[in-house]
Task: inverse folding
């Protein structure tokens, strides 16, 4: 309370009343303030009551508001992952049941009729599996990835096609922390395996219109834009690249800077940027203000490159995008556009790429061909995957007379294929001694032993070597249209080239050389088809094997189901760990909220003891003020004059 | 020495005592008048009379003057303190009204609504395909838009109130100035040109000057003939009996209404720094700053959110869309075409999807705005580039960009806009408008929530755009020099609350100074009834004494006359 300095010579009547009035008014104002605090329970009613504390209170309120979102995201994640857990539980039970049926029916004492009825049980399981795969929670297909609006598993082409995606969506659960709230359906059901991904790195070369956002930069973290300091030994300039959008913009900006006669262009390999100067230019490129632009662009040259020397930047590692021209793929070498022959299940499609100019054209041609395959750019942006999303069908990708499939690394069967991979991992079963005997059209015979060979090319070489040493007119090669080993008769005799198995070896059919010669050529088949495997395949195979009482197939299906079981259990474990994390985060968030709210209360809420005692003090002060003024103002000399 | 002389002394004493008693009575009568200045009757002895060589004898008493007990320096300090006090308390009351418009520290303030809005994006990320959640986002967007519009509306109507107040107070000040000028004339007439003692008029004039100080900070210059000249800043308001007049003026400068206080006679602007009018003009301009801040915050929310949204996709593509922001000239570079938000050099991708086959073809559209080579992108050239894409057509009409699918089997969408041109034009935008006066949720999204963009990769279940927008409030933005939208808002509110708080403190201080000075004035100039009662007794006794003297002399004269 403000107190008037009362070193005054005289006290007039008005002064007395004024002082009385102002002190009573002030006390009453303060009383009102305390009364307001007590009745609202808050000491900060307006931010201006204490701007410093109010600013903190506002931040805390904001934090609590943000945490509401985290909390609701955690609750939503918890229920979704819980649903995933339940579904995975049912799934593992289902696989266990199928395995039990498989082991119960593999013995020779089981009748075919019993197997038939077991097959119908498995068929019921199959239908149950479909509905598990298409489980919906809150209207969302939980295994559909980001295509969760439609059922991810559909019957198609004699198998079950996965039309969802493997994307796992996340949401924010804390500052700078996000957690997935779904599980990868393709992983769980084994819908897609790595076996089908393109093996070739087709990273493209740069064009002037390549967007900087599509570059991984020399460090792999992208190109972080800023300024660079460009010098030629005598002068130097800062070149602002922060607004550059494409590689062309960078080159134009450097050229417009006009430092000496330094010019920028794409490097000879087309993978980076090159700086060229005149004879006197000693080119240097430095970072500005702790940036990384020059190094990200691969042209960092802290000490001069030497007079007249060029600076050739390293590869900027451009990613493959939908808009990348096909001619720029494979570091500018481009890919062959003869096309592909894709077989999936009963469908075979020839895909002509002669009119395709961009990656998008190629993908649209493949995806729109009706072969029920899915072509996409891999997640690293370095290659193309052609996936068979249908469990229960086999996919084969072959050349259409060119090298397109090999260029993309997607040929399903080629001379470099490992023999052990063939026939769904069965490999090539050889016997002791020679495995095959080939007779040319002149009747010259030779035998080939195929033991201890690694690749298809090794087989071709072994046959050619044996033919040469026997003096037979036979050349082993590989189809240029379609996939398969070819044996071509060059003897030109009257007979027909012929191939026979030796020593009961299975090598003949395992290499796909079962067809008869046509026009002096034995054309082999593709013995390395791509089946995604997975639960649907294995369950379907079990059902079919039970129907046909194929014991070997039952065993193979059971083995597959065991893998599926292990995988499902592993993923269920991971999911369970995530659920635990979600729950512990929820707990922690609740605890944090309690602490934060306590802090907010300390800042905003009134301390009742303190406020009540202030109220008492002020009340006493007011009372005293009223009493003293009543008495003082009543005193007058006039009362004492007679 | 004669008896008559003594009688004359008695007569003068009677007259002077009467005058003194009258002064005292006047003081007592005005004991409750705060503007009154205590008067004192100054009494001097009459000139002595020499009755013998070296012997002087008094000739009675004379009333020299009746003067006001006043300290002119203190009066002028009081006037300054009145100006400051009125200024500070006016500032306090108006700033607390400004503060109240923000309604902070409650659950209904704009910052809570912003949180709710961004939280609803986060919620949408949990289930991007849900129309219900999309409706919630739209509803919360509308609430935010409405609140920001209301905030601006309340602040501008506050300015209107301030203007009304300034107008009324300027009228008061003018009439006060006129009264002072009139009093100047009366005082000169009453005092006959000499610095005399027209005490009542002087008190009246002092009271008016104090009232005027409450409105405007004035400086006074006393002239020898009794008039007082009044200046505001360095400009004269009253010169002698001439009131030059004070008036309120408003003009539109760069689209903003600016108010000023001018001299009626010369049209020059008075530099008012204190008093109620000084406070009101200062508060008015600080409200201008707050409105600017609200507008700038809103612009940033619109543009930053739209930049993210424009690169996202909804559950379905467009069959037709129009830009919402007009350009003045479709043939010049977009940076000069009158767009509120400036796009930069960059590019974006247009996806055209055939709904029958499900296949999408994407085309990169370049936007060149580097100002070099004379080939900067205009709205026309942009429309031409988009028109060149198969199966869609684009045109410009009335400063807007229209994009249409060529057939009902085709839809289109946008992604990866690094130029900001889509947001600048208002294509595929969430908010329309440019600042707090016209922010609103895009009508096409309101009518079709499927167009709300939650996805970034074109898949209906994707949530990357929703996540990016959910995090926007706490993302540090280059356009705000690394601040976040949240920080910008907080800083704005803190500035208002800090100045409101500072005004409270200075109002208290100014009131204290004023009270202290007025107490000092009361100590000197105020009437104490007790004192006056004592004076009255003294003067009464003096009167009684004088009367007794006359009666004594009368007896003496009768004694003399009785000598026979």
Result:
């Amino acid at each position: 309370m403000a107190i008037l300095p009362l070193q005054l010579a005289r006290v007039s009547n008005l002064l007395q009343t004024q002082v009385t009035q102002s002190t009573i008014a002030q006390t009453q104002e303060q009383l009102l303030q305390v009364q307001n605090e007590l009745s609202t329970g808050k000491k900060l009613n307006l931010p201006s009551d204490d701007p410093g504390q109010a600013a903190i209170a506002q931040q805390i309120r904001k934090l609590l508001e943000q945490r509401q979102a985290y909390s609701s995201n955690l609750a939503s994640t918890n229920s979704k992952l819980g649903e995933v857990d339940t579904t995975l539980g049912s799934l593992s039970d289902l696989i266990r049941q199928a395995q039990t049926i498989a082991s119960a029916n593999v013995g020779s004492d089981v009748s075919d009729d019993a197997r038939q009825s077991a097959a119908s049980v498995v068929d019921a399981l199959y239908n149950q599996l479909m509905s598990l795969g298409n489980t919906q929670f809150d209207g969302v297909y939980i295994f559909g990835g980001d295509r969760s609006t439609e059922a991810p598993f559909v019957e198609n082409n004699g198998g079950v096609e996965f039309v969802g995606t493997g994307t796992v969506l996340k949401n924010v659960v804390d500052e700078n922390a996000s957690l997935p709230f779904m599980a990868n359906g393709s992983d769980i059901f084994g819908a897609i395996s790595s076996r089908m991904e393109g093996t070739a790195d087709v990273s493209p070369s740069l064009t002037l219109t390549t967007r900087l956002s599509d570059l991984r930069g020399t460090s792999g973290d992208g190109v972080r834009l800023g300024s660079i300091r460009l010098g030629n030994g005598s002068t130097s300039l800062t070149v602002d690249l922060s607004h550059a959008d494409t590689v062309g913009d960078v080159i134009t900006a450097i050229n417009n800077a006009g430092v000496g006669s330094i010019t920028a262009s794409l490097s000879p390999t087309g993978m980076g940027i090159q700086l060229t100067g005149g004879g006197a230019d000693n080119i240097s490129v430095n970072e500005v203000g702790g940036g990384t632009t020059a190094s990200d662009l691969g042209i960092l040259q802290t000490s001069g490159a030497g007079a007249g020397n060029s600076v050739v930047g390293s590869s900027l590692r451009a990613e493959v995008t939908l808009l990348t021209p096909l001619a720029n793929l494979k570091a500018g070498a481009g890919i062959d556009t003869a096309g592909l022959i894709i077989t999936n299940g009963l469908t075979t499609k020839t895909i002509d790429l002669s009119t395709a100019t961009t990656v998008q054209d190629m993908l649209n041609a493949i995806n729109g061909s009706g072969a029920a395959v899915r072509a996409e750019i891999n997640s690293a942006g370095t290659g193309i995957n052609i996936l068979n999303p249908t469990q229960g069908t086999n996919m084969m990708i072959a050349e259409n007379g060119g090298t397109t499939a090999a260029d993309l690394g997607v040929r399903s069967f080629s001379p470099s294929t490992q023999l052990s991979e063939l026939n769904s991992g069965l490999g090539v079963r050889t016997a002791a001694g020679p495995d095959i005997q080939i007779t040319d059209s002149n009747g010259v015979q030779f035998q080939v032993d195929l033991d201890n060979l690694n690749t298809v090319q090794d087989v071709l070489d072994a046959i050619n070597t044996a033919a040469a040493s026997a003096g037979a007119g036979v050349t082993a090669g590989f189809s240029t249209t379609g996939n398969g080993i070819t044996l071509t008769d060059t003897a030109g005799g009257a007979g027909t080239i012929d191939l026979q198995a030796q020593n009961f070896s299975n090598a003949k059919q395992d290499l796909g050389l079962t067809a008869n010669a046509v026009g002096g050529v034995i054309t082999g088949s593709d013995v390395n088809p791509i089946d995604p495997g997975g639960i649907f395949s294995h369950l379907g195979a079990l059902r079919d094997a039970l129907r046909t009482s194929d014991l070997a197939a039952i065993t193979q299906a059971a083995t597959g189901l065991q893998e599926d079981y292990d995988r499902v259990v592993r993923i269920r474990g991971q999911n369970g760990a995530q659920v635990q994390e979600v729950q512990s985060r929820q707990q922690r968030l609740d605890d944090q909220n309690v602490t934060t709210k306590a802090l907010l209360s300390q800042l905003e809420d009134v301390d009742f003891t303190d406020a009540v005692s202030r109220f008492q003090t002020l009340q006493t002060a007011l009372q005293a003020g009223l009493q003293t003024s009543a008495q003082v103002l009543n005193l007058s000399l006039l009362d004492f004059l007679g | 020495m004669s008896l008559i002389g003594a009688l004359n002394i008695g007569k003068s004493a009677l007259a002077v005592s009467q005058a003194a008693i009258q002064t005292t009575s006047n003081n007592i009568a005005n004991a409750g008048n705060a503007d009154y200045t205590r008067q004192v009757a100054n009494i001097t002895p009459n000139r002595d009379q020499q009755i013998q060589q070296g012997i002087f004898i008094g000739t009675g008493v004379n009333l020299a003057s009746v003067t006001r007990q006043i300290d002119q320096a203190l009066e002028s300090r009081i006037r300054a303190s009145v100006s400051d006090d009125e200024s500070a308390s006016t500032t306090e009351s108006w700033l607390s009204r400004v503060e109240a418009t923000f309604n902070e520290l409650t659950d209904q303030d704009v910052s809570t609504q912003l949180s709710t809005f961004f939280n609803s994006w986060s919620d949408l990320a949990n289930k991007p395909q849900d129309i219900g959640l999309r409706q919630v986002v739209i509803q919360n967007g509308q609430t935010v838009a409405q609140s920001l519009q209301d905030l601006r509306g309340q602040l501008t109507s506050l300015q209107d109130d301030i203007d009304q107040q300034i107008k009324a107070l300027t009228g008061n000040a003018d009439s006060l100035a006129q009264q002072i000028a009139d009093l100047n004339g009366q005082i000169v007439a009453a005092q006959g040109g000499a610095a005399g003692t027209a005490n009542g008029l002087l008190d009246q004039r002092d009271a008016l000057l104090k009232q005027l100080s409450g409105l405007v900070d004035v400086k006074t210059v006393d002239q020898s003939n009794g008039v007082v000249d009044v200046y505001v800043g360095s400009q004269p308001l009253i010169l002698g009996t001439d009131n030059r007049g004070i008036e309120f003026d408003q003009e539109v400068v760069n689209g903003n209404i600016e108010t000023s206080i001018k001299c009626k006679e010369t049209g020059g602007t008075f530099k008012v720094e204190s008093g109620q009018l000084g406070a009101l003009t200062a508060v008015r301009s600080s409200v201008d700053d707050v409105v600017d801040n609200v507008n700038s915050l809103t612009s940033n929310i619109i543009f930053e959110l739209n930049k993210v949204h424009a690169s996202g996709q909804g559950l379905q593509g467009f069959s037709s869309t129009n830009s919402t922001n007009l350009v003045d000239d479709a043939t010049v570079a977009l940076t000069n075409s009158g767009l509120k938000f400036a796009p930069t050099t960059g590019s974006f991708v247009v996806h055209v999807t055939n709904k029958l086959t499900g296949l999408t073809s994407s085309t990169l559209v370049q936007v060149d705005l580097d100002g070099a080579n004379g080939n900067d992108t205009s709205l026309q050239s942009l429309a031409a580039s988009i028109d060149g894409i198969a199966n869609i057509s684009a045109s410009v009409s009335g400063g807007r960009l229209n994009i249409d699918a060529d057939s009902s089997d085709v839809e289109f969408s946008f992604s990866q806009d690094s130029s900001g041109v889509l947001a600048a034009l208002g294509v595929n935008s969430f908010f329309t408008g440019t600042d707090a006066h016209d922010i609103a949720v895009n009508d096409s999204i309101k009518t079709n929530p499927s167009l709300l963009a939650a996805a970034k990769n074109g898949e209906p279940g994707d949530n990357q755009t929703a996540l990016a927008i959910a995090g926007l409030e706490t993302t540090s933005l280059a356009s705000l020099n690394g601040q976040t939208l949240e920080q910008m808002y907080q800083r704005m509110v803190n500035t208002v609350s800090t100045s409101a708080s500072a005004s409270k403190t200075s109002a208290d201080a100014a009131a204290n100074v004023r009270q202290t000075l007025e107490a000092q004035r009361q100590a000197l100039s105020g009437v104490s009834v007790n004192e006056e009662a004592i004076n009255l007794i003294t003067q009464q006794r003096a009167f009684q004494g004088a009367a007794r003297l006359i009666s004594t002399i009368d007896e003496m004269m009768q004694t003399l006359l009785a000598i026979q």
Summary: Chain B touches chain A through 85 residues (CB under 8 Å). The first helix of chain B runs from residue 3 to 29. The mean pLDDT of chain B is 91. The two ends of chain B are 23 Å apart (CA to CA).
